[in-house]
Design a protein that fits this description.
Number of helices: 8
Strand order of the largest sheet: 6-7-5-4-8-9-11-10
Number of domains: 1
Order of helices and strands: EEEHHEHEHHEEHEHEHEE
Number of strands: 11
CATH architecture: 3-Layer(aba) Sandwich
Strand content: 25-35%
Distance between the termini: 43 Å
CATH class: Alpha Beta
Structural class: alpha/beta
CATH topology: Rossmann fold
Length: 218
């Protein structure tokens, strides 16, 4: 993997086998805030005192680390549980090689191939390593307040944007839960609808098109 400096001076990696980077070149940290933490209203959720986050396609954990940072800034006593789903152990190991300007990320340095979980005060983080089509089976029904969906692109990995996987997300999301992703591809949104999710535009950040926010049908 090749390290890449993005426009906001935060680092990511290029997966040369896939031909895509793990974050937007317009800014990896900006993406974590603008595409995930802000549109899922993490600050508002923090006021409730408890948040459960599913960070699907965890990578180096920028998205959930940013969400935790925002939540603790709003409510230092908020209890936060993060579950990360990741296939590639190699990208988890790269956590040790980056230092993004995300306050809580320093604790993510505790994660490694040999240690896939940690607890820091009222925050717990755990990675389930393996094929997401299998690891999702370990997740409980209607459990998560927020899902961050951040695989490689639909063009590169269409199987990771399937109706079946979105059905699993609908299953594990609370009735009030929200899923955020960077893609607005027609196939992605069609599969969300088939899975029982209602979508709307997310923010436009570093792309011409918006991201997507999805909730359960009422």
């Amino acid at each position: 993997m090749k390290k890449v400096l993005t426009a906001d001076q935060s680092e990511t990696f290029l997966n040369e086998e896939v031909g895509e980077s793990y974050h937007s070149y317009t800014g990896a940290v900006e993406e974590a805030m603008k595409k995930y933490a802000e549109p899922t209203k993490i600050r508002e959720l923090a006021k409730s005192g408890q948040i459960r986050i599913l960070d699907a396609f965890f990578g180096m954990g920028y998205n959930s680390a940013m969400a935790v940072s925002v939540a603790l800034e709003e409510n230092p006593d908020c209890k936060i549980e993060v579950v990360g789903l990741e296939l590639d152990a190699a990208i988890v190991s790269k956590i040790q090689e980056v230092n993004p300007e995300i306050p809580f990320f320093k604790y993510y340095k505790k994660l490694s191939i040999d240690q896939l979980s940690f607890v820091e005060d009222n925050v717990s983080v755990k990675i389930l390593l393996g094929d997401i089509r299998e690891t999702t089976k370990q997740l409980g029904n209607e459990y998560f307040d927020v899902v961050f969906w951040d695989p490689f692109s639909p063009k590169t990995m269409p199987d990771m944007w399937s109706e079946d996987l979105f059905k699993e997300m609908a299953r594990v999301m609370k009735s009030t839960g929200v899923l955020a992703t960077y893609s607005c591809a027609r196939m992605v949104r069609d599969n969300m609808v088939k899975a029982g999710l209602f979508y709307d535009d997310g923010p436009c950040v570093g792309r011409r098109g918006p991201g997507t926010l999805a909730v359960k049908w009422e």
